[in-house]
Amino acid sequence: MSMIVLQKFRYIFRNCYQLSVSLSPKEHIIRLPYRSYDTWLPWKCSYGLKWSILTLPYCKKCGTVLKQVINMRYELYLQPSRFLVSGTTESVMNVFDRNAKRLQRNRAAMAKDVHLYDYLKDEVGYRVADRVYDIKRQFPVAVELGCGRGHIGPHLTNDTVGFLYQCELSEKFLEQSRTSETVPTKKLLVDEEFFSFPENSIDIVLSSLSLHWVNDLPGLFRQIHTSLKKDGVLIASLFGGDTLFELRCSLQLAELEREGGFAPHISPFTEVRDLGNLLTRAGYSMLTVDTDEIKVCYPSMFELMWDLKGMAENNASWSRKAHLHRDTMLAAASIYKEMYGNKDGTIPATFQILYLIGWKPDETQAKPAKRGSGTMSMKDISNLDQLSKKWNKELDNDNK
């Protein structure tokens, strides 16, 4: 195909890696998607919008692809679900098998008693929705990312949300997703790692117990930040590092005893100290991060593992072990009961929940006072009663 160069685009990658590209889709308008560490931008064509995920950018109608790359100082490598520039000092860790997680969710959705395993996610989804009601304003456009079977949407009303998009990786979970009775809702099949909403188009993004399966969490936070309008907010919950520590320790000790070594059976989780740094790097302001613990008691370790499978929360890391021996499982169940068991014969399972709130900066938001503008010393905190009486008298005198 003959090439007619319409326009050149110059992109500056992280650490000043530069390249220029020439595109020639005749009668089309296309922008090359690029990756500046962890931000995806779309390319557009007059015949539609297409995200480049596994292939080079092309037009949905004519199939025109990137033809020339000139003045390129570093090669552009194509890896699964990633464009990376060789030589960068930072890279995205690929820990979880996203396709395996999608299959696990689809299999869980096909169970006849799938509703029995929603107890934990329904409770956390209600707590996330409750945080929305703490904000005294209405959000015209909202997104529930990783909605599952609908754990936040049913708790929302039209007083807080005008329109809701429910996004989910699993098509069967999405079909079963419950919606609000008063909020218009549209369901979208979306991978959480590729948040493809337009820039400055969303007022609030909600997510409950889904982000802990995302490989590129900093990149997702930046994509959400780009899609949020000014003064928009992200409210999410995810499992913390202490989740299922009893099960993790029991399996490790059992494998060491029976097999002479152990493999990771519990997926890695985010630590609370890391969330603030990730949100700050992504550009959020007025951050709030808090933790909560939910303990659920089970008859034995096997009921716990069965419920985790029913929740579609079984292990999906690339390094997961394909087979767990029967002797090891029996030994782990005994260790679990001996080390952590309750007096009534049950075993506890700890779920640490991390809640985060981050706002997109705006000029109308409250700003901290200037340094040195304080009028009260920290030493006077113990005398607050006397100070409050003094201030009340001053106010009364001013009113007179």
Descriptive account of the structure:
The chain has helices at 98-109, 119-133, 171-176, 217-227, 245-259, 272-282, 301-310, 326-340, 384-399, and strands at 7-12, 18-23, 43-45, 48-50, 68-70, 76-79, 82-85, 139-145, 161-168, 185-189, 202-208, 228-239, 285-298, 347-359. By secondary structure, it is an alpha/beta fold. The chain folds into two domains: 7-85, no CATH class; 98-359, 3-Layer(aba) Sandwich (Rossmann fold), CATH 3.40.50.150. The strands form four sheets. It has a seven-stranded mixed β-sheet with strand order 10-9-8-11-12-14-13, with helices on both faces. A three-stranded antiparallel β-sheet has the order 1-2-5, with no helix packed on it. It has a two-stranded antiparallel ribbon with strand order 3-4. Helix 5 (245-259) packs across helix 8 (326-340). Residues 1-61 and 63-89 have low confidence and may be disordered.
Short description:
The chain has 400 residues and is of the alpha/beta class. The chain has nine helices and 14 strands.
Write the layout of secondary structure elements.
Layout: E1 7-12, E2 18-23, E3 43-45, E4 48-50, E5 68-70, E6 76-79, E7 82-85, H1 98-109, H2 119-133, E8 139-145, E9 161-168, H3 171-176, E10 185-189, E11 202-208, H4 217-227, E12 228-239, H5 245-259, H6 272-282, E13 285-298, H7 301-310, H8 326-340, E14 347-359, H9 384-399
Parallel strand pairs: 8-9, 8-11, 9-10, 11-12
Antiparallel strand pairs: 1-2, 2-5, 3-4, 6-7, 12-14, 13-14
